[in-house]
Write a structure and sequence with these properties.
single chain; 128 residues; mainly alpha; 2 helices; 54% helix; elongated
Length: 128
């Protein structure tokens, strides 16, 4: 009997070539995955930033409303009754309640004292 013909390995690609192709494909897949993850991360950061900016706009509007409310609460018409109810002795200023004072007459200039030596400590107070 004749021995059977053996099947010979007919693949023209060798093990080193297949390994090199697998390494290149895996590298390209990892680069693609990295790009996708990076874009998703940037998009998520952008969404967070938009949320923070929207919240800041709302808070700025609230601050402006509060400042307007404070200004209206501190007007004279609203503060005066509160101070009166609190028992303070404040009264509105009228023209008759203002005292006008005459300016003081100028005093003659005093004689200038001789300049003291700056190297010696001075204990006496200077006259105004």
């Amino acid at each position: 009997m004749k021995p059977r013909p053996r099947n010979r390995y007919r693949n023209s690609l060798g093990l080193p070539t297949i390994t090199a192709i697998l390494i290149v494909v895996a590298s390209l897949a990892l680069v693609g995955l990295g790009i996708v993850v990076s874009k998703n991360r940037v998009r998520a950061i952008g969404e967070d930033q938009r949320k923070v900016e929207a919240e800041m706009r709302l808070l700025n509007a609230e601050i402006l409303a509060m400042n307007n409310r404070i200004e209206t609460m501190l007007t004279r018409d609203r503060v005066q009754p509160r101070l009166t109810n609190a028992g303070t002795l404040l009264r509105p200023i009228t023209k008759h309640g203002i005292l006008l004072l005459k300016p003081l007459p100028e005093q003659p200039a005093k004689a200038v004292a001789p300049a003291a030596d700056p190297s010696v400590a001075q204990n006496t107070p200077k006259a105004p």
